[in-house]
Amino acid sequence: MRFHSGILTGTVVAVALGAAGCSTGPTTSPPVALSSMAAPSETAPIVPAPSATAPALPTPSATTPSATTAGLGACGAGQVEVSGKVMSPATGHRGVELVFTLAAGASPCTLAGYPGVDSGAGGPLLHADRTPRGFMGGLPQGSDDPPTVTLRPDHPATAIVEGTAFDAAGSGCPLYTNLSVTPPNSTDTHTVTVTIDSCALHVHPVTG
Description:
Layout: H1 2-23, E1 80-86, E2 93-102, E3 109-112, E4 116-119, E5 129-130, E6 148-151, E7 157-164, E8 175-182, E9 190-197, E10 202-203
Parallel strand pairs: 5-10
Antiparallel strand pairs: 1-2, 2-7, 3-6, 4-8, 7-10, 8-9
């Protein structure tokens, strides 16, 4: 019995040593799959591209003062002389062309708009209506804005006054021998010696 237990004990010891020998041997780690390793990024950092649209530059104003009117003021009292001449009559219509010239020694200036016109001696007082155009002249069709005209010694301006020589009943109208004319934007009234027979007056803008 003693013999058998010694054998059993030796066997157990041998088995234990064998197991320990196996556990202390070198340990080999399993290979790591290449696909599981993080590869360095091949994508270059994104650099913002410069804007393809250039910054908008301020454009110059499309409106530029005219070379002939820049720096010139409106004509005032004493700067303008007014005369007139009778136009050829046409089918009962009568007309006077008013001429505005720069007074001697005056600096160039501008006129724009309608002159004031009243009848003088010869009949009842008539105030000329302001109309863009009429039978005897005025602004061209499609343009109702009076132009700005520069008066210079060699460059006058003109305006047309017109009327009809007969009333609605066919009777003749009074013959006036002068007109009172005030240039546009002025209070400087001139007496213009000129004849016109009419029952009503119409004046058109200054042109040049």
